[in-house]
Amino acid sequence: MAAKIKKGDKVVVLAGRDKGRTGEVRSVSPTAGRAIVEGVNLVKRHTKPSAQNAEGGILSKEATIDLSNLALADPKDGKPTRVGFKVLDDGRKVRFAKRSGDLIDG
Questions:
Q1: Sign of the C-alpha dihedral computed for residues 64, 65, 67 and 72 taken in this order
Q2: What would the CATH number be for the domain defined by 10-75?
Q3: Alpha carbons 61 and 31: distance in angstroms, whole number
């Protein structure tokens, strides 16, 4: 199946404790069906000081969130939208927002 959510997309969280928050996708794992979104699903991790990471302690980092709990933000108004695909006249396959009809890629 084609990727509806890609790295760099603006997304809205639909479910969970961060419902309604928006952020940019940092990475997507299609096989696991999960993504990391900037500033969303923050968890605390206890870390020891190491050679690369000089300071230890309790650090906040983003955990993965299931793709089913994310929706693309409409380019027009920023509200959640579904994603469709269409082939342009020049042969490119592009994503578009079903809410407004605006193109997402190019």
A1: negative
A2: 2.30.30.30
A3: 22
